[in-house]
Fold:
Amino acid sequence: MPQPQLAVPLLGDDQDRQSFFCGPKSADTLAELVWLIERHTGRDGMFGTSVPLLHLIRSSKTTLPVNTVYEPAIVIVARGTKVVMLGGDSFTYGPSSHFVVSVDLPVTSQLIQASPEAPYLCMRLGLDPAQVLEVMKDVEPEAEDGREAKRGAFVDQTSPELLDAAVRLVRLLDTPGDIPHLAPLIVREIYYRIMKGGQGEAFKQFGLAGSGISRIARVIARIKLDYAQPLHIDELARMAHMGPSSLHRHFKEVTALSPLQYLKRIRLQEARRLLLAESLDAADAAYRVGYESPSQFSREYARLFGLPPISDIKRLREETAQEIG
Structure:
């Protein structure tokens, strides 16, 4: 197998350079992560791997803001920069930082640094709450689960130790026989490194069964399952063991949205998926996702995606055709 050429990668800004050029080992480790992701992708897209929950992502061009739903995951960037907007919060992350999402969050994301010569490259590791809890109990045996909810996403600095663990996890793709034995250990180490970082308290909540984040996560799961049904706040509050006003406050703290706003985002995202995948008109899609008024659906769809349903889908299909062509 050829050895990686550990040329210094292109970094996004002065903070990136200060963080990684202060030590040659970190620069070499980051360069190896760039080489590994490039070699295991080779073209733009998100690629599953033989390591459970690990995906590699490559993009050679910047994007306009895109509305999407992020699932719980850790994103460690090797090259390029992305911005994620959640409510009034903005999260910018690149090679000196990592992004963690602890619940399903409707966000607006934009890739702001990428090019054919220096594509955006990252690894995405899905979160396993049971494993997070195991690591947390080792780190903090007397952990309490009644903590206040925190925002369901954060950015933190990527330590040299965390970066090293990330590289070792991706390296396993070259030795598939080692994956069942070593991948769980490295994933635990990644969780541990994040837990010991500056946003460790927020990360720990993901694994605690009674924490604010975990209770809101159960409510989110119900909303996503029954998105086409009317929203019953009292029922959701009972599920979270909260009063309705407490649920509203905690839900907005975690997601930056009220439960009703969250439901609307999920419905509109699903409607867009249906319109792309099936031959539906806007009214059919509206009814399928729970809207009673097609006109209200069209207004809210245009407000979120920038165009009415049919125009938006036509634009998306034209963009896809151009990329394929």
